[in-house]
Amino acid sequence: MKPSAKTRGIIAAGHPQTAAAATRIFEEGGNAFDAAVAALFATFATETCMSSVGGGGFANIVTADGQQQVIDFFCQTPRQKVLTHKLDFYPVDIDLGDTLETFHVGAGSSAVPGSVAGIYAMHKHLCTLPLKILIEPTIEIAKSGALVDDFQALDFKILETILRVHEDARPIWFRADDNLKLEGDYLQMPQFADFLDSLVHEGADLFYKGEIARKVAKDYAEMGGQLTRADFEMYQVNYNRPLKLPYRNKTVLCNPAPSMGGALIALAMQRLSEKIIDYHYQDAKHIETLYQVYQYHNRLHSNPDFLKNELKQQGWFTDYPETAKWGGTTHFSIADEHGNAVAITSSNGEGSGYMIPGTDIMMNNMLGEAALLPNGFHSWQADTRLTSMMSPTIVLDENQQVEIVTGSGGAGRIPGVILQVLHYLLDHKLPLEQAIDAPRLHLEHQVLNLEPGFSDNIGHINIKEDINRWGDKALYFGGVHTIQRLPHGFEAIGDGRRSGVIASTF
Q1: Phi first, then psi: what are they for 412, rounded to 5°?
Q2: CA atoms within 13 A on the CB side of 441
Q3: Three state DSSP letters for 96-111
Q4: Which of 20, 36, 417, 427 is within CB 3.0–4.6 Å of 478 for a Cys-Cys bond?
Q5: Packing angle between helix 414-426 and helix 261-273, nearest 10 degrees?
Q6: In sequence order, what are the beta bridge partners of 311?
Q7: Biggest distance spanned by C-alpha atoms of the chain
Q8: Could you tell me if 25 and 505 are in contact, meaning their C-beta atoms sit under 8 angstroms apart?
């Protein structure tokens, strides 16, 4: 039955129409989880290069009555491998501004998508409104158009090579003159609107046991992909307990195994808790402290045996697969007046280039990222949940009430950028807006990357790597869209690095 009164709620997200979809559901009387389902649907139409029905993600959930759960609807590897010489699998270079990364795309790069199954799982267990109501904002966006903001326009430019692979992608991301759509344009997905309408009537079986699974399996068999109808039919959502970290007098709830991101956040924050924070957040001492924590973080990431041993010492689950996922991601955080909170991070990688016919949906390329496969391409285990750096995170106060809801896109940089924002909030006690705006750093590939705003006087710090000082804040350092509960009520900030926005019905 539809609730009768408006719900007071708040969202921090990556696009204004994503946020508007959530607030519309609050206006309808839905709870935070209703709003989250509507927002996740909306990302498929508003943040198309980051989030897709063809991808997957994670939802970190705390309910009003104190239940804690992480819903893993991330991608699953195929049940069987195709001989590599028969695969549609090839490299593309992606220019991220101050760095260049190579990814692999094609039908052979796709894993089994989990987004639809995740939405149905959340709706079944947590929502109060009919799915038809929750999907309406996205159907309208797909028909009338999603505004292309500055971040989406940049994203299109970065991924243009992939967006040009399939003819069905041209009407979506390109103008009539075959140039990319620009900031201020509108992106329409009429076939996606029709797909959503069918999804409401036919349910998740449309995707996993019906027309969509048949189309993808048929095309991939002909093109050199690896997914079959059995891969779709056997997909399951996983329900996990969050990884819990006591930090100062708080409790940090992170994404557990098989995701690696939560473990890296938890272990790095534990190392950070041993430090005495007696310095300003822009000082050289701050850089030195985070540099030391990052050295530990990177050792955890690069040495599976060391990671497992460190986790074992904490009594945490240690069964991490060989494969870790980076790539294009988006995040949003939602909370309501009742005490419900949810942080959702979703991803389509960079996209495989393959469009499911008649749907405007691009499939993921989760198996096409070299840095994630230490034993080489195609070393992944069959029929296994991919691990990930994504880690939607919730912090509870000393009374076990939700205090912070956060997360980020940003590929392998996700754990580090979340760690830094929590460090600013919990240790430096910065106001939320200042904590999100504060400069970030990242240590990778023998380079210490520094955003503007840090001290110039760091010559005395023993840094072995090269130092790269960025001229501006950049999407490279994530998009940490965050909500914080304060004594006077909720505050929210959308990270400007990825054109974040907020909306509220309070």
Answers
A1: -70, -5
A2: 28
A3: CCCCEEEEEECHHHCC
A4: 417
A5: 40
A6: none
A7: 65
A8: no
In the numeric block, which tokens belong to residue 49?
Answer: 């290069």
Q: Of 232, 259, 228, which Cα lies nearest the Cα of 117?
A: 232
DSSP structure string for 198-240? HHHHH-THHHHTSHHHHHHHHHHHHHT----HHHHHT---EEE
Task: Please give the structure tokens belonging to residue 439.
Answer: 């400069």
Amino acid found at 318: T
Share of the chain above pLDDT 90, in %: 80
Concatenated DSSP letters for 348-401?
-TT--S-EETTTTEEPP-TT--GGG-TT-TT-SPTT-B---S---EEEE-TTS-
pLDDT-based confidence at residue 101 (cuts at 50, 70, 90): confident
**Is 330 among the catalytic positions?**
no
Model pLDDT for residues 325-370, shown as the tens digit of each residue: 444 789 999 999 999 999 999 999 999 999 999 999 999 999 986 5
Q: Indicate the SS3 state at residue 287.
A: helix
Judged on CB neighbours under 10 Å (0-12, 13-18, 19+), 278 is: exposed
Confidence of residue 403 (pLDDT cuts 50, 70, 90): very high
CA angle 275, 431, 298 (to 5 degrees): 40
Query: What is the chain's mean pLDDT, rounded?
Result: 92
> Do residues 407 and 418 lie in contact, with contact meaning Cβ atoms separated by under 8 Å?
yes
Beta carbons within 8 Å of 48's beta carbon, 6+ residues apart: 146, 152, 172, 173, 187, 189, 362
Active-site residue identified among 329, 330, 345, 482: 329
**Which tokens go with 395?**
């912090």
Q: What b-and-e string marks burial along 55-69, b requiring 16 or more CB atoms within 10 Å of the CB?
A: bbbbbbbbbeeeebb
The CA distance from 135 to 37, in Å, is 8
Residue 220 has, within 13 A of its CA and on its CB side, a CA count of 31
Residue 321 and residue 381 in contact, taking contact as beta carbons nearer than 8 Å? yes
What is the reported pLDDT for 306? 87
Q: At what angle do helices 131-144 and 16-27 cross, to 10 degrees?
A: 150
Structural element, H or E, at residue 72: strand 68-73
Going from the N-terminus, what domains does the chain have, and what CATH number goes with each?
Answer: 1-506 (3.60.20.40)
For residue 203, give every residue at least 6 positions away whose Cβ sits within 8 Å of its Cβ, in sequence order, or none.
120
pLDDT 10s digits, 480-504 = 999 999 999 999 999 999 999 999 9
* Type of residue numbered 463: I
Backbone angles phi, psi at 383, to 5 degrees: 50, 50
